[in-house]
Amino acid sequence: MAANPVVPGSARWSSRAAFVLAATGSAVGLGNLWRFPTEAGMNGGGAFVALYILCVLLIAAPLLLAETLIGRHGQRSTIGSAVHLARESGASPLWGSLAVVGLIANTLILTFYCVVAGWVMHFVISSGSDLIGALAGGNALAGAYADSSVAEIRQIMPALFSDPTMMVVWQAVFVALTVFIVARGVKGGIEVAAVWLMPTFFLLLLGITIYSSITGDFARAVNFLFAPDWSAAFQPGVINAALGQAFFSLSLGGGAMIAYGAYASRETKLGETSGIIAFADTGVAIIAGLAIFPIVFSVGLEPNAGPTLMFQTLPAAFHSMPGGAIVGFAFFVLALFAAITSSVSLLEISVAWVTERFKAPRTLAALVIGLFVFGVGLLSALSFNLLADQRPLPFIPGFENFGWFDAIDGITSKLMLPLSGLITAIFIGWFADKRLVNAETDLSGGVLKAWRFLIAFVCPLAVGAILVLGLFPQILA
Ligand code: PHE
Known about the structure:
By secondary structure, the protein is an all-alpha fold. It has one domain: Amino acid/polyamine transporter I, CATH 1.20.1740.10. It has 20 helices and no strands. The relative contact order is 0.20. The structure holds phenylalanine. Phenylalanine (PHE) binds near residues 26, 249, 251 and 254.
């Protein structure tokens, strides 16, 4: 047991269910609703989905358990917990670097995450006022933005992009919301948000999926997502994207799950809960795909629109569907809820570390880091307009042509998260005290053996290989 557990009683989940909801809330987010369909659409659909599921099963789910156990064992911030386990295992505290890379990566992710969540807020308001208009006009079953043409709807997003002030205002509002919740603490802020928002999220998602399967082109979406074109799977870019997505979507590599694990009670069975969280997150990604693509296909739009799929293609699709005004609004509310429960986990990692390391009050830590996140996030927000010409990473293969937004997204999810996941796997698989680790997993027999094999061999080899391939795709060519 930790000699000096740092996590105070108020910073503990009140139940196992609260832990599962909060961790699932962290995992389920824009990564599922926006990034997964985007990546699937751009990387050939089924092949990407198949690789993604493989990455989750063989790499991400085992790592999820590794992260939560580091946190629960250490009962400290992510860095504190990793260093603690290293010391207890008689290993170098330098293994704590896994959490340092992670902390930097996750703080960087939060910078652009708040920008995208800001777009979501913009759409909540615009689809909300559209819905009010439809209801006032006595037409509850109107399509979304019924008074506009499809061309006009597709302009909402570019119009927002060409208005830096508006974008920055939304970004600021979302950062402020995240700071507010995290400042209220683990139980009083993060848990309350998760317990209210996640069940509502699941209900809305279920409703939209049913709607979409009835009104949309469901068969084509199923075919697109589940009938892999295997020739596409062997493109290094696709493998890399699938692994990056698995890390991003399960909130892995950065330590979010270490942070949340630290607030879990001794009684929580981590092996079991990690399985539930991984299953729920993957399920939501696939259901989100099944909610979004039928609508996109039914109106003859293309799945490979990229990041604008959710904001340009989807609203245009809702336009011609009965009840589209209601469903469109519900969809963006759902996305906003998902984004909030994830952004708080991204912020919590650094807030926990700063309060532990500098004994700073939580509110102050949240405010200062929030300001930093907002400042750096401006680069991503403005890369769609004022800074559109800047290419910050000309020296990294594959990143030469990326603006700030894509550069920060790419470097964190495709490089930093897998790198820190790789260090975590090697640390837990080879250097951490086996007895301590095994006891924390709450697994036994064959399942424990299988998990140890995945963590010690499969994760390091696969992640290492995919990282190298991502950087030097010419190897396969
Ligand atoms: N998993 C979150 C999502 O899918 C994003 C996230 C990444 C959260 C990393 C925490 C850490 O939206």
